[in-house]
Amino acid sequence: MKVTDIIAQSKHPLFTFELLPPLKGHTIDSINETIEDLLVYHPAYINITNHQQEVVYIDRVDGLVERRTVRKRPGTVALSAAIHYRYDIPVIPHLICGGATKEELEDQLIDLHFLGLDNVFALRGDPPKGERRFIPHKGGYEHTDQMVAQIAAINRGEYLDPTLRDPVATSFCIGVAGYPEKHAEAPNMDHDIAMLKKKIDAGAHYIVTQMFFINDHYFSFVQRCREAGIDVPIIPGIKPLSRKNDVDVLPQTFHVDLPSELVDDILVAPTASKVREVGVRHCIRQVEQLLKAGVPGVHFYTQGKSDSVSRVVKETFGS
Fold first, then answer.
1. Biggest alpha carbon–alpha carbon distance for the chain
2. How many domains does the chain have?
3. What helix, strand, coil percent values describe the chain, rounded to 5?
4. d(C-alpha 308, C-alpha 260), whole Å
5. CA gap 319, 313 in Å, rounded
6. In 230-240, which positions are buried (b, 16+ CB within 10 angstroms) versus exposed (e)?
7. What is the mean pLDDT of residues 310-318?
8. pLDDT tens digits, residue range 250-268?
9. Nearest to 42 by CA among 8, 83, 87, 4
10. How do beta strands 91-96 and 46-48 pair?
11. What is the spatial distance between Cα 189 and Cα 298, in angstroms, rounded to a whole number?
């Protein structure tokens, strides 16, 4: 079932969450445990992230250092299908521009179509670990709107090879990311909103935001999107803080603001469990305000951990 249909048919805001594929060499067991912990709250769908290659440096026996690229979390398409058919729930695999050619993206879309998965989430992707800036893959895309346009084209039955006879049209529902505090690489919010509008104009059907911890940023972002002519659903993305070093890591990694009161309470929390308690209570207040404001749903970034998210959802969505 398509995400936009789920939103349109639901009488209540949606609870959804995101998972990372396991590290190479690990099993799906921990993923299944997280899903089963959260199934009691009736998630509307589950997102599965996608990760491009990373740069690593290997010490050689001759004393030199060898530069290699490795993919540490493969399996997005396979994991999405496994979850979909095991739990009978819609699953949204992420597709990224980074590390893929147009042809490889088309092949992924064909695989997803054959598997009966009709939702995708389109992202440019971050620069590989060890690289300072995003460099488009040779034969790939620099910006997400270009990938969205390709997906929209295949939805019309237009494949990269124009000589195909009677090609079948797909019906992917396309989600894209939005940034309430602007993308880190955008020069200003106006430019960032304009880039988001290009993704919608290219064929995207809904938006899920980057995590934020101050709801006014989300409300302001939605208002600016509406003023720019973006009228698709905008789903807030939320993450409960769970570790003391989140105060430093999250702003550096995701370029988000943390409210002073939350930071103060986290820093004085004497134990790890107290830190998680502070993060959960703040997240509950956030979600309660968002639900009261009539958001279409709340999307949780779990990082593969269900405990804190489960507590927040129990308090705000109920069982």
1. 67
2. 1
3. 40, 15, 40
4. 21
5. 8
6. bebbbbbbbbb
7. 93
8. 999 899 999 999 999 999 9
9. 87
10. parallel
11. 23
**Could you read off the pLDDT of 283-308 as tens digits, one per residue?**
999 999 999 999 999 999 998 788 99
The secondary structure of 112-141 as a DSSP string is HHHHT--EEEEE--PPPTT-SS--PPTTS-
Residue 221 sits in a domain whose CATH number is 3.20.20.220
Tell me the residue range of the domain where 277 lies. 3-316
Report percent pLDDT > 90 for the chain. 80
As a whole number of angstroms, the distance between CA 299 and CA 49 comes to 13
In the chain, where does DSSP find H-type helix? Answer: 3-9, 29-38, 76-87, 102-115, 144-155, 189-202, 215-227, 246-254, 260-268, 272-292, 307-316
User: Distance (Å, rounded) from C-alpha 293 to C-alpha 13?
Assistant: 11
Average pLDDT in the chain: 92
Confidence of residue 66 (pLDDT cuts 50, 70, 90): low
If pLDDT is split at 50, 70 and 90, which confidence band does 65 have?
Answer: low
Which residues 6+ apart lie within 8 Å of 316 measured at CB?
A: 284, 287, 288, 291, 298
Which structure tokens are listed for 8? 């349109």
What does the alpha-carbon distance between residue 260 and residue 237 come to, in Å, rounded to a whole number?
Answer: 20
Estimate the crossing angle of helix 215-227 against helix 189-202, to 10 degrees. 60
| Single-letter residue type at 75 | G
What is the dihedral angle through the alpha carbons of 123, 177, 22, 92, rounded to the nearest 10 degrees?
A: -90
> Tens of pLDDT along 119-176?
999 998 876 666 667 677 788 898 999 999 999 999 999 999 999 999 999 999 999 9
Using an 8 Å Cβ cutoff, are 276 and 303 in contact? no
